[in-house]
What we know:
Blueprint: H1 2-9, H2 19-49, H3 53-72, H4 74-87, H5 103-111
Amino acid sequence: MNTFLSSWTNWSVCGRASRSEYWMFILLNFLLSLLFLGVYGVLMYWGFHYNSKLILHLAIVEFVVFAALFVIGIIPSFCVLVRRLHDAGLSGWLVLLNLLPVGPLLMLVFTVLPSHDSSGRLDSHGNSRQGQSATIRWN
């Protein structure tokens, strides 16, 4: 849970993310999405079944909150994917392959690759632009 929260609050593309950190982040995001959508479905069912406008309004508010979290979650998802690519010894720019039709499949292959020690080439301390960090921390 700590790695999940740190991935949500560390909006940095510098450094590395291990396979376990990346996949725990993906798994917990997926489970939270299922929870939100399940609650939404139940509220919609109750709202239509009991003809309650209050419950339907709650469902709409809950869906808006879910949509906002989904949109905000794009940034940490992007950052943890770039850090995972760094850990596999690949360039973070490969994330742009997601724009191609086969890009998500390639990202799946890249994210399951084992960690690669590139002697600090892509670490936050070993990057070529020392002193220029794109880190936003919300602690």
